[in-house]
Amino acid sequence: MVCKRKGAAGLPACPPCKQPRCNNAAAAADTETESESEAAACQCPAGEPQPQPQPQPQPRALPADGAAGGQPAPQPPAEGERDPEKEKERSGPAGCPEPQEHPADGSREPPAAPDINQLPPSILLKIFSNLSLNERCLSASLVCKYWRDLCLDFQFWKQLDLSSRQQVTDELLEKIASRSQNITEINISDCRNVSDTGVCILACKCPGLLRYTAYRCKQLSDTSIIAVASQCPLLQKVHVGNQDRLTDEGLKQLGSKCRELKDIHFGQCYKISDEGMIIIAKGCLKLQRIYMQENKLVTDQSVKAFAEHCPELQYVGFMGCSVTSKGVIHLTNLRNLSSLDLRHITELDNETVMEIVKRCKNLNSLNLCLNWIINDRCVEVIAKEGRNLKELYLVSCKITDYVLLVLFAVPADLDTHIRSIVMEIMESASSWSKISQTDFTFHWLQLMRGNQDFSQRRKTYPDKLMQRN
Question: What is the pLDDT averaged over residues 240-249?
Fold first, then answer.
């Protein structure tokens, strides 16, 4: 506050009053009171000299001599000065604190550590989708309740791989099916504690099942496959290889009720015959893959039925089945055929193989292992006619090392030719010196003679072919 008599002749000005910077109403009232008192003190009669104001001692200044015992006596604070601690108490939470002279010296709280749970649930679900079933169930779900709920999301229970888990029982299958009825794919291969009852419950509670795999479940019978076929009409894949108790009765239900079936595998199901296979061929017209192995009751009639009724077939395998060239020749009608497995067909002649290679232009994989009739002339035709052929398997065929020269004598500009070869050397491989001079490149070459295996992996390099170990 500035004295109103400032500048008056012969009268000294009153000292200015220090006011605390505060927005508090109480502090403002105190300031007004002090101003009035100081103004009253300044109003002296005219013409009388105003006594000089005595300097006020500082609140923290200590006198040289104490009142008693040499101890300094506390001095009361000046009228115009305030104790900061008391002023803070009077101001209360609404008071305005004094600004710091050096703001950078103030203590700052460290930034909060990032929390993965702050991510959106969709991001966490995407992360958890990269974990295996064991990692989700035995690790991630035990972190916290939030993660446990995420691990139980329905999208993680659409595709279940329970293979080789002996703790899987009928009761566990029932619990899984009851909790998530959106299962589209399940694999219970090598689960020996699962019976027909568990599979039937699973099929009843999961009508949207698309892919069913149960390899080597010898305890299962036609009851399970009939339940799957009856309750899951949208079924597209059935792989039940090596089930000794499976018969044509189960196949009949598949052929009559599962019209969307595209992929079947009945290898080493020894009780399956042409009766069940023909019903599947006539009922499942969308088949794309079929694999049979050592099914001795499957003959040329089944091969003919599939070739006539399933034009979309791309992969066909009849390894060790009782088929001959009379049935295999019907496969030439399959224009989309890309992979053919004819291993161990005892009555397969060279003419049939050459005709298939000529007419099936999309063929890229051919397996002729364990066929002693296949000779050099047949392989030479395969090398010339099979322009899209990438894989050729000739183990235990009646061929010589001359075949190597035939296979590698391809035009230099033909880049899409055979890249994977597995064959057996019958003679001394005297043509190695000629082969090493070619510029042929490949991804895989395996040469065997008896118990010896001359194998070497190779990528596409421009240098020489390979050197014999």
Answer: 95
pTM: 0.66
Q: How far is CA 142 from CA 135, 148, 168, 181, 356, in A?
A: 10, 6, 20, 24, 57
Helix (H) or strand (E) holding 382: helix 376-385
Q: What whole-number distance in Å separates Cα of residue 309 and Cα of residue 299?
A: 16
Query: Tokens standing for 37?
Result: 């008192």
What tokens does 391 get?
């894989």
| Torsion sign across C-alpha atoms 41, 43, 44, 50 | positive
Q: What are 362-378's pLDDT values in tens digits?
A: 999 999 999 999 999 99
Report DSSP state, residue 451.
Answer: T
Six-digit token string for 154: 């329905």
Give residues with Cβ within 8 angstroms of 468, minimum separation 6. Answer: 429, 432, 454
**CATH entry 3.40.50.300 includes domain 119-156:** no
Strand partners, 112: none
How many CB atoms neighbour CB 456 within 10 A? 13
The three-point CA angle 301-304-307 to 5° equals: 150
N- to C-terminal Cα separation, the chain: 107
The bridge status of strand 365-367 relative to strand 315-319 is: unpaired
- Residue 149: phi and psi, rounded to 5, are -65, -40
pLDDT tens digits along 167-195: 899 999 998 888 777 899 999 999 999 99
Lowest pLDDT segment from 153-157, 209-213, 303-307: 153-157
Give the distance, in angstroms, between the CA of residue 438 and the centroid of all CA atoms in the same chain.
43
- Of the candidates 293, 305, 224, the one whose C-alpha atom is nearest the C-alpha of residue 264 is 293
Q: Average pLDDT, stretch 80-96?
A: 52
Rounded to whole angstroms, the Cα distance separating 328 from 195 reads 37
User: What are the residue boundaries of the structural domains of the chain, listed by start?
Assistant: 119-156
Q: What would the two tokens of residue 456 be?
A: 């070497």
User: Token pair for residue 90?
Assistant: 């009077």
- Residues 3 and 24: their CA atoms lie apart, in Å, by 24
Residue whose tokens read 């506050």? 1
Contact 386, 410 (CB under 8 A): no
% of the chain residues with pLDDT over 90: 44
H/E/C letters for each residue in 230-260? HHCCCCCEEECCCCCCCCHHHHHHHHHHCCC
Span 391-448, pLDDT tens digits: 999 888 888 878 777 777 655 443 445 656 676 654 444 555 555 555 545 555 555 5
How is residue 58 written in tokens? 């500082």
